[in-house]
Write a structure and sequence with these properties.
The protein contains eleven helices and 21 strands. The protein is α/β, with parallel strands linked by helices. Strands 7-8-6-16-17-18-15-19 form an eight-stranded mixed sheet. Strand 17 and strand 18 form a beta hairpin.
């Protein structure tokens, strides 16, 4: 391994929680039946499925950082069941493909719900609540209308909210309308993954944090090396999303994108009363390039989270300068929506990695004998990552299902243009799409 990704800024969701116990890095040489590389949504789902189906087997999970500090603890916390193609105008695609995608997303969400129930996680960590597509402009409203027609064709339920209903929910008159769909789950990402990891730990499942993989090679069995240890096992599941390229697989076919979030300090009781609205809600933008907003109330107090902006970064890292630049955009987006609150500081700002393919397919399958991939979540890491981890584990255990058959039948990720062209083209495309988002951003 020649590089490790770098996630900028503190993972705000994780900072709201009590400090975890000290980490246990891998130290020394051990053997196992399974190694799962990555303790995010995909890796934890794979370990959970293995723990249920491969009873008696010893499972080792490795992560380069603390659970909750990596990409899984940096997303906005929407487990979305419906089509959510970030490259489309209104998230929708071809009808047949979207029906299959919805079925698969719901399988991932159901698996996540099972884990939440198995490990006694509360509603703040995971709740089936639905979500709103918020429209801040006539263009956004048109996007929602287009998506609503697509949902009707899919036979999916939805409810249209007018401006007054949106104001009652959000406490702001910024939104002209909303499109509510009931099938999404909302999670506190760090609380969820830390809770699942804690529930998984047993005499059969070991999770080693601060243990980045520095080498992966096959010597009959697979040998996985970290800075201070080594695991030998016959089967390995790579649950590392776009970091898959760093292991040498599917080169030139994955797009590495960062998105960014800012979280306010805890609002005062006076600010909470002034804002009004519901204490907990989640809103994705009608335009995929717009601003996602969440309001949360629980551990850490009442807070608002703003998520927008995308950058194409094949190096798997961005600078603090870039994070600060995006932060200024977040402040403007917040002020536009919540001007009545006056000055509210952002306590945490961070960036998180996405992995996309040009043709919106995942990389789920056997890469080499005994080596399996659960990667490329296409901007929906919560649901698709959970799905991918479960399917990779099923494949490795010789199980079958319609969802696994669909994953294995999928075409390969489309090849990208040469690096300089891809960098230039993706950067221009993202900037153009963000500019077109207008008031939705």
């Amino acid at each position: 391994m020649t590089r490790l990704p770098r996630d900028p800024g503190p993972a705000g969701w994780n900072r709201l929680l009590p400090d975890p116990d000290p980490p246990t890095p891998l130290d020394g040489k051990i053997t196992a039946d399974w190694v799962v590389i990555g303790a995010g949504f995909a890796g934890l789902a794979a370990a959970h499925r293995l723990s249920k189906e491969a009873r008696g087997d010893r499972i080792v999970v490795l992560d380069a950082v603390r659970v909750g500090d990596g990409p899984a603890g940096r997303n906005s916390g929407f487990m979305i069941d419906l089509p959510h193609d970030l490259t489309s105008g209104d998230y929708a695609g071809a009808l047949a493909a979207d029906l299959a995608q919805t079925q698969d997303n719901r399988r991932g969400i159901a698996h996540a719900q099972d884990m939440a129930q198995d490990y006694g996680l509360g509603d703040e960590a995971f709740v089936m609540s639905g979500k709103i597509n918020g429209a801040a402009s006539s263009k956004g409203h048109a996007h929602n209308q287009s998506f609503a027609k697509h949902l009707s064709a899919m036979g999916e339920p939805f409810e249209v909210f007018d401006a007054a209903r949106m104001r009652d929910i959000t406490g702001t008159d910024y939104y002209q309308s909303g499109l509510f769909t009931p099938g999404s789950a909302m999670i506190q990402p760090a609380m969820y993954v830390r809770g699942v990891a804690a529930g998984l730990r047993s005499n059969r499942v070991s999770i080693y944090e601060n243990s980045p993989v520095t080498a992966l090679e096959r010597r009959g069995d697979w040998v996985v090396t970290t800075p201070n240890g080594q695991v030998t096992a016959p089967r390995v599941i790579l649950a590392v999303n776009g970091h898959l390229n760093s292991f040498g697989y599917v080169p030139g076919r994955l797009m590495h994108v960062f998105t960014y979030a800012s979280m306010t300090r805890a609002l005062s009781p006076r600010e909470v009363a002034s804002l009004g609205g519901d204490r907990v809600w989640g809103l994705t933008p009608a335009d995929p390039m717009g601003t996602t907003v969440r309001r949360v109330s629980g551990v850490g107090g009442d807070r608002i989270i703003i998520r927008n902006r995308f950058t194409f970064d094949p190096s798997l890292e961005v600078s603090d300068t870039q994070l600060a630049r995006v932060g200024r955009d977040h402040d403007r987006s917040f002020a536009q929506r919540f001007a009545a609150l006056g000055s509210v500081d952002m306590q945490y700002r961070w960036g998180g990695r996405l992995c996309l393919s040009r043709n919106n397919v995942q990389v789920i399958g056997e890469l080499e004998k005994g080596l399996y991939s659960a990667c490329c979540q296409n901007g929906l890491g919560t649901a698709k990552g959970t799905l991918a981890g479960g399917l990779a584990a099923e494949l490795a255990m010789g199980m079958t299902s319609p969802a696994l058959a669909r994953a294995l039948a999928a075409v390969d990720p489309a090849r990208l243009p040469p690096a300089p062209i891809a960098q230039f083209g993706a950067t221009v495309y993202l900037k153009l799409q963000e500019r077109r988002a207008g008031r939705e951003l």
